[in-house]
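Q: Predict the assembly, please.
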Amino acid sequence: MTEWLGMDGYAAFVWPAYLLTLVCVGGLVLHAVLRRRATAKRLAELEQVEGEA
Amino acid sequence: MWSYFANPERFDRLAAAMLPWTWGLTVLLFAIGLPWALVFSPADYQQSETVRIMYVHVPAAWLAMAAYAGLGVSSFVYFIWRHNLADLAARALAPAGAVFAFLCLVTGALWGRPMWGAWWVWDARLTSMLVLFLLYLGYMALRGAIEDEKLRARAGSILAMAGLINLPIIKFSVDWWNTLHQPASVIRFDGPTIHASKLWPLSIMALAFTVLLTALVLTTMRTMIVERRLERLERQRESRLEAEAAL
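A: Predicted assembly structure:
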């Protein structure tokens, strides 16, 4: 395990590459999901207001 | 065909049916690809463990280029036929493509430093990839700077189409100019020169990135359709309230 994490002395290059990939991909997915939710919420609110009017 | 899919409601139904599968397939492919890339694939006899960077660097590069090709094609379709869905596709593709281009550049630097002894060199491959990243930023900045919706989409589509010229430059930069970057080893006329033990995990990771981009773009386009409806409803409500106030 320690040997694997050490990446033959290249841990400082391999792991940041994967960490950044995780951050980038995770960020894209999170942004898409949050945007979808926020839009659905706004639509529901507006439809409720319009229903009362 | 374009007209058939240009109907937002038809598109929304199709995308809604596809999305659970697309997201599920994304998770499955990463669940296979990541352990293969990080654990089971062998280290390289020259590059040792740094070769593992390839499994994120190369898919990021391909997808940055594929997303730009998609941006160019949707821009063309919008420019000629004025289909709004094509414009939505372009808008959804640009930020994702920019993130992939950025990821490609940074993972490339992290690979270049131990293998070439340099984080960055101004050679043709690296510079043309940087140009791709800047094209994405330019496209988004241009759209952000124009108020009028139609003009914004039109100007954006022209910029995106002009930028297409950069794609063959990136692809063939390693053949046309002397460069530190290795030549193509996967997409070649005479077949891949990379060993199967590395080609397989690379293919799975590339597929995972591709399906992920598809899921992201479809999700974002569906959101944009709702956003447009919201804007219309809000405008209608405002004008109705104004009319009521005037009475």
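The mean pLDDT of chain A is 91. The interface with chain B takes residues 4, 7-10, 13-14, 16-18, 20-21, 24-25, 27-29, 32-33, 35-36, 39-40, 42-43, 46, 49-50 of chain A (CB under 8 Å).
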